[in-house]
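F.,

This is the one I mentioned.
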């Protein structure tokens, strides 16, 4: 007798009380996959890396990032999935009605008062997980990412599988690349949703400009993009990656406070296809390669088990030069980034030559 096993919905519980976290896992663990976070910052990191979470339960008073701040991050997220997640606030008996109203106005979905009974959590989890699943199913049917116009994870899966099957059947080369904006969470937290969204949209447009007609591109997570490259071997894939990264890493974003550049890193797989090798293997190899890049301090790309360190050329813009001159005139030389000094000195070289010539002329006049 075959059994159809359905994956459990995933739920995130954020609370600085270990007792509350363990109680929630005990009450919900039989029906749901439970992720636990001891504060809002850890909870936010989990949300950034897991698109399967359906419901968030969070306390209000926590260190590092409290419940209100986590709620604001969720509702301001550039990911539609995260921004629309049901967020249920775990409130204490001493939380006033005005506090609850403030949280509700900020976008909370519902409340559960501590200490809670298992039925309180189960009823909320069941209702909102079902609602979230319906929303996700509708998003999948559209086939594209509304923010960038690229494909979404569902369309990548469908088209990528077709391209892989064709390549495998006809013994053709195929590669898969995962790109990610390294440190995107810091961009979001430092500059807010507007700048973060500008970065995501601009990179999506730039990907569309540099990709070939036969390539399959998608935005598969908040700051992650994917490319499936039919009839492309390892060497050609590296050329594509270098072209994409060069185009994107030289972009300059105006945050209103300072100029911002991104580090667009990549992991890829260009396998020798065998009968046993699957599209899921292709995805996993590319993902594993990207994960190794993300924990590295150097800008690079990674292929399977091979790390390819790249020297990323520094681009010093006119705005950088102008800002350096402002610092020079103010006497704040130490504020000029060390990596900009050579470019500033090169720009000043004709003027210094002019000064030297003037000094020679003046000395001749004095001698006469």
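My design for it:
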């Amino acid at each position: 007798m075959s059994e159809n096993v359905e994956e459990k919905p995933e739920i995130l519980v954020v609370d600085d009380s270990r007792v509350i976290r363990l109680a929630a896992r005990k009450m919900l663990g039989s029906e749901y996959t439970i992720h636990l976070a001891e504060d809002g910052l850890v909870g936010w990191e989990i949300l950034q890396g897991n698109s399967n979470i359906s419901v968030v339960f969070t306390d209000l008073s926590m260190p590092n990032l409290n419940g209100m701040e986590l709620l604001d991050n969720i509702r301001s997220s550039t990911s539609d999935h995260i921004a629309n997640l049901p967020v249920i606030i775990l409130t204490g008996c001493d939380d006033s009605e005005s506090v609850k109203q403030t949280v509700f106005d900020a976008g909370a979905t519902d409340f559960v008062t501590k200490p809670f009974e298992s039925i309180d959590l189960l009823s909320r989890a069941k209702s909102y997980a079902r609602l979230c699943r319906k929303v996700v199913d509708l998003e999948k049917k559209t086939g594209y990412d509304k923010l960038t116009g690229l494909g979404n994870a569902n369309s990548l899966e469908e088209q990528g599988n077709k391209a892989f099957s064709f390549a495998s059947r006809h013994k053709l080369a195929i590669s898969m690349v995962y790109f990610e904006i390294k440190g995107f969470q810091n961009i979001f937290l430092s500059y807010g949703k507007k700048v973060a969204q500008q970065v995501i949209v601009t990179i999506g447009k730039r990907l569309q400009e540099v990709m070939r007609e036969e390539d399959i591109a998608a935005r598969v997570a908040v700051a992650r993009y994917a490319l499936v490259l039919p009839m492309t071997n390892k060497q050609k894939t590296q050329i594509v990656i270098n072209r994409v990264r060069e185009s994107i890493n030289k972009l300059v974003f105006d945050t209103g406070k300072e100029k911002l550049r991104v580090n667009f890193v990549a992991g890829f797989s260009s396998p020798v296809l065998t009968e046993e090798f699957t599209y899921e293997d292709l995805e996993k190899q590319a993902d594993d390669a990207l994960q190794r890049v993300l924990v590295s301090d150097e800008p690079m790309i990674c292929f399977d088990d091979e790390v390819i360190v790249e020297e990323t050329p520094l681009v010093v813009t006119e705005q950088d030069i102008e800002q350096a001159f402002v610092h020079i005139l103010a006497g704040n030389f130490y504020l000029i980034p060390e990596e900009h000094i050579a470019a500033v000195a090169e720009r000043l070289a004709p003027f210094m030559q002019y000064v030297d010539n003037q000094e020679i002329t003046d000395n001749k006049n004095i001698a006469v």
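The longest helix spans residues 341-367.

Talk soon.
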